[in-house]
Amino acid sequence: MADDVGSIPELDQKKYDADEQVKIICLGDSAVGKSKLMERFLMDEFRPQQLSTYALTLYKHTATIGNKSVAVDFWDTAGQERFQSMHPSYYHKAHACIMVFDIQRKITYKNLANWYKELREYRPEIPCCVVANKIDADLKATQRSFSFAKKQQLPFYFVSAADGTNVVKMFREMIKRAVDYKQNPSDFMDEVMEELENFDLEKKEADEDGLKAESPEVA
Amino acid sequence: MRKRIIPVRNFSKYSDFSVAAERLKNHPRHRDYLDQVPQSQLEKLHIILRDHMQGLSLEDSLASFRLDPEEDLNKLDDEELARKKGQMDTLFERNRKRTDDPDFVYDLEVEFDKPNQEKCSWDDESDDEF
After folding, report:
1. Does the residue B119 lie in any domain?
2. Which of A31, A62, A108, B103 has the most C-beta neighbours closer than 10 Å?
3. What pLDDT digit, counting tens, does each position of A17-51 carry?
4. Do residue B117 and residue A144 have CB atoms under 8 angstroms apart?
5. Nearest CB to B88: which of A29, A31, A151?
6. pLDDT per position as a tens digit, A197-216
7. What is the ipTM of this complex?
8. Domains of chain A
9. Considering the domain boundaries, does residue B36 fall inside one?
10. Which superkingdom heads the taxonomic lineage of this protein's source (chain A) (predicted)?
């Protein structure tokens, strides 16, 4: 069922159902600096776990929200087209999304529309933001207005993974939004899935009580 | 000024450039000298060397690193992508602030005012999707 979608045998995505775990995905074209942003935010904590078959790099981080500690898994994905079939498992159970483009390459900005469209097919409601990276290469870019984020009503950040501008701020805000979303999901599918899981449980209990189900096709 | 010669050993035209670069960087006799040299630069040298062994001219080899801002890098394979990333890393390293820089701030926040923002030429109206 749903877990077929998110099936990466090495990874148990069920853990993201636990209250103190969130999953944040990073999307964007090849070489826009997604991994460099992760590295800048995590610093000494930076211990990537590479799953090359899935073109996926995982980073674990522990954040403190209020007085609670939250385990954050960042899913850093490859932009290369040949990994497109993996995308459904990236999106599966994600609580927030960071979309990155390179202010020096127009095509990476134009492609945001495709990334965003695909994201919304799988996760219609999760918090998302747009990140304009590499502003160190051309500070004048910060004078321009990039309308994509405004049109989609997404928060927008000018950042530089090289000099660190706004990197930590962006990640902290997104972690906060991921946690808020998880506590209060507005995604219809999430609620349906939750209902279905409860339903399974009730059915199992009924079976154990000796009330065998009337549906013999269920093996 | 001193000159140090570091030989590249066991490297053929079929070798993996990134493994070779990593081996060199971690080599017990050379690592102290290579600590400050970015991995991507060592990879680049190995790629050029391998291109040469495969009969490519230096000019063609160097051209493969050149960045075309219009090119869709999503379509490249790992090695082609590594060539472009290596080029980008040069700029990254030049602008990079390190933790041991005296003015390093982990949580660096900069507000960019937006009073007279130019409309971005990347947002042309012909685009429906935007």
Report:
1. no
2. A108
3. 777 899 999 999 999 999 999 999 999 888 888 88
4. yes
5. A31
6. 666 655 555 555 554 444 44
7. 0.77
8. 2-186 (3.40.50.300)
9. yes
10. Eukaryota
